[in-house]
Amino acid sequence: MNAAFFLCFIAPSLVATENPSALSLLMGLEESRSSIRSGRIVLSIQEIDPLSQSVEDNENVELTIVFDGARRFCKQKTQGLTISGAKLESEHDVSKFLNTKSRSEIVKTGIGRIEDIESRLIHDRDRTIIYEKSYGAKCVNADASPYYNFDPRCLGFDVYLKPMENDLHGFFEYYYPGSVAPKFLGTLQLVGKEVVAGHQTWHVLGRLAGQEREYWIDSTNGYKIFKYRNTSQFMVSEAISEYGPTMKVPSKIEIRAYERRDNKLKFGMNINVLSQQFNVPVDSSEFALANLRMPIGQAVNDVRSKLAIIGYWNGETLIPEWTSQRPKEIGKTRGFVYVNGALFVGAVVIALILYNRRRK
User: Fold this and answer.
1) H/E element holding 25?
2) C-alpha to C-alpha distances, 211 to 141, 156, 198, nearest whole angstrom
């Protein structure tokens, strides 16, 4: 960050009071997380279904993330819900059906079923490539992927595990430098000290694009965020974090989002860190295409450019043409469509149905 750019915001508050400035607290948080440069983290994520009638309705995901700077490898294992689009009349029927039925109810109708699903994803700044057996291989925009793809150093900063910027520095740069910065910085204020889960924290408030963003930060032991809240016109969402004794990222996070009009649960997550290793050497093979474990001949579609095929996997690299028997493109004859996570259910199913229709 440009220190001179922030001086005019920080210096007046330091002179006027002994309390830290709101901006210095956020910058301290970024500096603490930026000291993590690489590593491996394994998380369990329980997605809370607002329509759940039992604990079985909540989807459980085991997520492994290996990262080195902006590069990431993500492996996601879950028992996912698949929907037979052929048994529903229209995209509207799909959306209405999914938004009014729990997982167990959908399975009972025979339209859905539960399957063991494993997906693998490699992310770099310019592209994200995903492989999952029933989904095929796709090259997508980082923020358009229906799979978990986020920088673990951002845990606790937001209620979504898919930040728009997708990496730690992008997250902070969105709020500070550039045209957005003066608008956000001009609204920053230090509300005061508050106790969160037994910890003395500084409450920071900022406003941007009609939303209030609030941070509860403990600056006494390495700048840790214990609570985050986002309030928009229609929804209030919160992330409450716990930390282990030597952890810079949370060990547990509880995320809940509610509609403001009736306080109805919109979505929720319970996140537990199962293991973590930070600032350790990461072999470059982690981010190689071979780590996606695609079958020989697998076509990789680029959904960013009208489903153009960017290459075929030959076991070592992507080649432009497949000289032996053309591989069967997965998804063309598939009757069931995988729904990956409560947050993206309707959008993913509709997109895949439209995609299949175009190809027929």
Assistant:
1) helix 22-34
2) 25, 18, 27
Q: What is the pLDDT of residues 89-117, one digit of tens each?
A: 554 565 666 666 666 677 777 777 777 88
Sign, CA dihedral 69-73-77-83, equals: positive
Q: What single string gives the DSSP state of each residue in 236-263? A: EEEEEEE--TT-SS-SEEEEEEEETTT-
Q: The domain that contains 26 carries what CATH number? A: 2.50.20
pLDDT tens for each residue of 23-34: 899 889 888 988
| pLDDT value of position 97 | 63
Does some domain include residue 321? no
Identity (one letter) of the amino acid at 28? G
**Range(s) of the domain holding residue 26:** 3-77+150-282
Distance CA 303, CA 162 (A): 19
Taking the model in full, what pTM does it have? 0.75
Confidence of residue 16 (pLDDT cuts 50, 70, 90): very low
The pLDDT tens digits of the residues spanning 339-359 come to 444 333 344 333 433 334 443
Contact 279, 39 (CB under 8 A): yes
In sequence order, the β-bridge partners of residue 288 are none
Q: Is residue 65 a part of any domain in this protein?
A: yes
- 101 occurs within a structural domain: no
Q: How large is the average pLDDT for residues 74-79? A: 89
**Does residue 352 lie within any of the structural domains?**
no
pLDDT at 224: 94
Among candidates 58, 57, 30, 31, which has minimal Cα distance to 44?
Answer: 58
Q: Which of 33, 30, 28, 26 is nearest to 190 (CA)?
A: 26
What is the number of structural domains in the chain? 1
How many angstroms separate the Cα of 57 from the Cα of each of 103, 107, 143, 360? 5, 10, 26, 33
